[in-house]
């Protein structure tokens, strides 16, 4: 265990988060998400997507240079629907100073996820518990920026 790091973050997930660069994306998905839709799949079995999101955002800054650094898969047949899992993920995003997630059509979501650095399959059982996060930058301390 490490001090200050959420214990649900596995060594493989920590490595993925550290290895990602500005503009890379990571996808947190529910237990029903097809693992074949990504280059690299990591598992957080037994952890719901909201808890996983909170843990990931404790280390990962979201991109502030793009309009929608967080995207969720919209509900098929009801694109305006806001399932409880969306609302919970948005609460976490907003509490961390981020914008709410933008809904994206199902197949557009899959296409975006296929290009992600990694897909993290959680134990989330609620439908549509899927979110794409685009990594931002960590600014240098003000003192270093002046040099």
Distance between the termini: 36 Å
What does the main sheet amount to?
6 strands, mixed
Element order: H for helix, E for strand = HEEHEHEHEEH
At the first level of CATH, what is the class?
Alpha Beta
CATH superfamily: RbsD-like domain
Strand proportion, as a percent range, falls in 15-25%
Low-confidence stretches: none
Percent of residues in helical segments? Answer: 25-40%
Q: Which architecture name does CATH use?
A: 3-Layer(aba) Sandwich
Taken from the alpha-carbon principal axes, the silhouette is: globular
Provide the CATH topology.
Answer: RbsD-like fold
Structural class by secondary-structure content: alpha/beta
How would you briefly describe this protein structure?
This protein is of the alpha/beta class. The protein has five helices and six strands. Helix content is 29%, strand content 17%.
Please tell me about this protein's structure.
This protein is an alpha/beta fold and 147 residues long. The chain has one domain (22-145): RbsD-like domain (RbsD-like fold). The protein is 29% helix and 17% strand. It has five helices and six strands; from the N terminus they run αββαβαβαββα. It has helices at residues 11-19, 49-57, 84-95, 106-114, 142-145; strands spanning 25-29, 41-44, 70-73, 102-104, 118-122, 131-134. The chain is globular and about 50 Å long. The relative contact order is 0.30. The model has no long low-confidence stretch (mean pLDDT 94).
């Amino acid at each position: 265990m490490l001090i200050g790091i959420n214990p649900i973050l596995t060594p493989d997930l920590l490595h993925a988060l550290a290895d990602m660069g500005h503009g890379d994306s990571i996808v947190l998905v529910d237990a029903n998400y097809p693992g074949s839709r990504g280059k690299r799949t990591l598992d957080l079995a037994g952890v719901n997507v909201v808890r996983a999101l909170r843990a990931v955002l404790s280390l990962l800054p979201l991109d502030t240079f793009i309009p929608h650094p967080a995207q969720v898969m919209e509900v098929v047949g009801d694109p305006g629907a806001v399932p409880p899992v969306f609302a919970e993920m948005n609460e976490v995003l907003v509490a961390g100073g981020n914008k709410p997630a933008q809904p994206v059509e199902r197949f557009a979501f899959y296409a975006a996820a296929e290009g992600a650095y990694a897909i993290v399959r959680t134990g989330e059982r609620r439908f549509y518990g899927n979110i794409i996060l685009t990594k931002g930058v960590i600014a240098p301390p003000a003192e270093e920026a002046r040099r």
